[in-house]
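Narrative progress, year one. The postdoctoral researcher (J.K.) led the effort to move from monomer predictions toward full complexes, under supervision of the PI. The following entry was the first complex the group processed end to end, covering 960 residues in total.
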Amino acid sequence: MSTRITRLVPSAVAAVVLIGVLAALYAKSSGVDVEKRSRVDGYLRQLKQVDAEWNVDVLKSRMGINANYDPLVSPLPKLRTLRAKLAHELGGVTDPEIAPALAAVGATIDHKTDLIERFKSENAILRNSLRYAPTAVSELDARIDAATRADPARASLLNALKNRADETLTGILRYNLFPDRSTAATLATEVAMLVPLAAGVGDDVGDSLTNFVRHAHVILTQREVGDAVLGNILAAPIDADADRLGNAFDRDFTLSLEKSNRYRHLLLAYASLLLALLAYVGYRLVRSFRVIARVNHELKDANESLERRVHQRTEELSRALDDLKESESQLVQNEKMASLGQMVAGVAHEINTPLAYVRSSLETVQTHFDGFVREFVGAMTRLVDLMRSPETPDTEISDQFETAVAIRDRLDEIPVADEIASLLKDGVHGVDEISGIVVNLKDFSRRDRSQMSRCAIEDCLASTLQIAKPVLAGRHLRRLFAPTTPIQCAPSRINQIFLNLITNAAQATGEEGLITLVTRMADAHHVVVEVMDNGSGIPDDVLPKIFDPFFTTKSVGEGTGLGLSIVYKIVEQHGGSIRVHSRPGVGTKFTVVFPVDSGESAALDSQPVPEIDIAA
Amino acid sequence: MTFRQLAALAVGIALGVCAGAAAAANADEPLRPLPERLGLDHRKVELGSLLFVDKRLSADGTIACSSCHDFANGGADPRPRSIGIHGAASAVNAPSVFNSGLNFRELWNGSAPSLEAFVTGVVQNPKVFGSKWSDVVLKISRDPGLDARFAALYGDGVTRDNIVDALATYARSLVTPSRFDRYLRGDTRAITTEEAQGYERFKSYGCIACHQGVNVGGNMYQKFGVMGDYFRDHGHDTPADQGRYAVTGRDSDRHVFKVPSLRNVALTAPYFHDGSAPTLEAAVGVMFRYQLGRTAPPADRALIVQFLKTLTGERQPELAKAVPQAPAPSAVASAAEAAGRSAQ
């Protein structure tokens, strides 16, 4: 898993780098915000329009066409918004000309706002005085008229004043409509000349005159100041500043457009490259996919054929197992037959000896019977016959008598009766011996094989030796029997063990071989039986295999190779153990250890053992 | 005489004042009616109405906006000088909050270009609310109800700018259409003959030179004392009396103030930035003398005062779609009075 991840890391890094470059190029190429440009252009256009309308409204206010100053105030929030928007749009632009241009636009707007504020104030004062000036002169006229009525003597003076005031008013109003600097100076002089007159015309007229003079002065001053302010307002170059800002922005925009165009070309080239790479990767991918599909298909085929082969092999194996089982049973049968053959040979030999002398005794008895006994019986029968017949001469009877006596004497001379008795006795003995062998045979292979009983190991050995006598022919047998506790066992199977071991020992030794049987207690609960020979021994390479089933050193047909494996199994079933020590040329020792109480009766009952049932 | 008549006619044409401009709906009228629609977010108005009476805006929790902007006093402060936290006397008399959204700038010296700028500044002003905005934001955001309202209205919840926005929006909703607005819209019977005559006097005496537009003022600066030195005559010349000079530092701006709106002027005594005129009649008198540089017969001045009283309007909650929870003027008034008493 971790190796897979580490294998993936370089590809992932490469992919990230490729995409990163693409993204960077894209960002660079799309760095030109055309919408931003149109927004900025729009704001600047709006700014210029607001400014133009502002100028118009200022003029209208000056002309009195605007009845109030609301139109001069309403652009203020618009200008504030536009300035904020422009600052927002252009805040991030790095062009060195834009920030000063933007600041200049702001400063100009502030300056113009200030000027317009001044204009409103000055214009209000001017308008107030302009409005009031005729009224003030009317008031002055009324008071002069009153004063004239009160003091006709001063009529000419007062009328002169009245006319001068009227002329001054007319001059001022005309000046207001058509202002020029020289008229202003003349009017200022005229107004100034009115001032000293106020002293000599009485309080009423004087106050009124002073009032008019004040307003006339205000008009003259404010008109001039107002015109100056108005000129400054109209000269305030918001328009030009906005254009300069627009030009700076356009230049910056064009530059970044060119830059982004370069990046666009780069992006195009890079994208084509990437596309080619992608196509190649895709091609590779498709190819790999095909290979994978093919390999997958092959794998599937292989899998199927493997399954088929496994199935086939399983069938073969099962057949082989069947064959093996068959041959195993065949071999077991062979072993059985071989053992049987040995048994039969032994038993035949055992029986043959007593049978021979039973026969000879019976033949001797028959000989005796055919000779003397038949002769004597015949002589006696004739004698009796002669004696019974009255016409028989005595001589004949005495002759016959003599003959009979002679035969009896002969019989006395050779103790035929004793001999026959002896012979019969011998015969009975022989028959007894044969019957003993048969009993032994029965003991060796009892029918109730799995029957567990407590049995002395020495009895089993004795029984086995009886059977194995023919095999042992001529070998010296040494019995070293220490007293042992009878063990719980199936005697017939124990016999089978011993027969096998003894037979092997006998076969391993020549005619002069020595076979030693040892019994002893290993401890209170284990009995040891050792079967030793001084035979050829078992080679080291063979030794580990001797308990394997079907292993044999004998030529084909002589042994089944099952003997020791069966021994091993029986020992195991009795909870015992078997060991072998062998040295080639010195001899072999089998050591069998039996527990006194095997406790394996159940297992023994249930587990079938290849049996050699000689009684079957 | 012919000269004078000719000249008068010329002046009349030049000023655009039509002699027969009795037609109330005439577009050339220097006064204009209040807008009929405001297009404000009524939820912001409602939120602003809650903040308007919220004393948590002040550092010590003693004053709210409504402490100085007394709804029973035309939205202005009845005290000559407004009182901030710790009883600090402000340099000026708080003008009306009513129709303040129609002023071209805020404050007597016009130093705040907008309601937003005004609210932002006044909360931090040590002589008014004396707060730090961070504290105000914290206090308001701890109020679960207000916090929820802000969260619902503004993406970023309680912030300085959002509090300012809600308060400014509320202030903009406080327009007061009057009988005179109906008159301007063509209802010639909305005002009496005397009041209409008063309006004519108002125009002919030149008051209209400054008090014009939709807010009857509030759209320009003017020097206080054009035709006479008001401050010398009244024997004081405090920094607040310098007016716009305090903002620009230009001599030409000395004693220059924002021309106040005359809407609800009958309710907003005392008058002028220093609250020096206790009655409307006194204020009109001062204006005649120092601004117009003339006198007028008492009858004409009375007519003008009568006209000015037609500018008294009613708050129109439906205009701003304000909700019922906007503070009842009486309750606010009493609260403000209580605050005023305790401050004094």
